[in-house]
Amino acid sequence: MAEEKETATSYNLQIKIPTELKERLEALAKEAGVSLNQYIMFMFIRETKK
């Protein structure tokens, strides 16, 4: 499932998602003008502020 590795100031998180979801997220990231990782981080931050 997910693997977490602790560093001094952050965590590395690796997840597996379906290819179709990755492609949809990549399209949304491209529309926003950011990388896939940046877009996903934005989504996490937005959801945790609710």
Annotation keywords:
2 helices, alpha+beta, 50 residues, single chain
Structural commentary:
- The chain is α+β, with helices and mostly antiparallel strands and 50 residues long.
- The protein has a domain of 34 residues.
- Helices cover 54% and strands 16% of the residues.
- It has a two-stranded antiparallel sheet with strand order 1-2.
- A hairpin with a 4-residue loop joins strand 1 and strand 2.
- Helix 1 packs across helix 2.
- It is globular and about 30 Å long.
- The protein starts with a strand and ends with a helix.
Secondary structure elements and pairings:
Blueprint: E1 3-6, E2 11-14, H1 19-32, H2 36-48
Antiparallel strand pairs: 1-2
Helix pairs in contact: 1-2
Number of helices: 2
Write the element-wise H/E pattern from the N-terminal end onward. EEHH
Main beta-sheet annotation: 2 strands, antiparallel
Order of strands, widest sheet: 1-2
What percent strand?
15-25%
- For the secondary structure, the number of strands is 2
Q: Spans of 5+ residues with little confidence (pLDDT < 50)?
A: none
Helix content: 40-55%
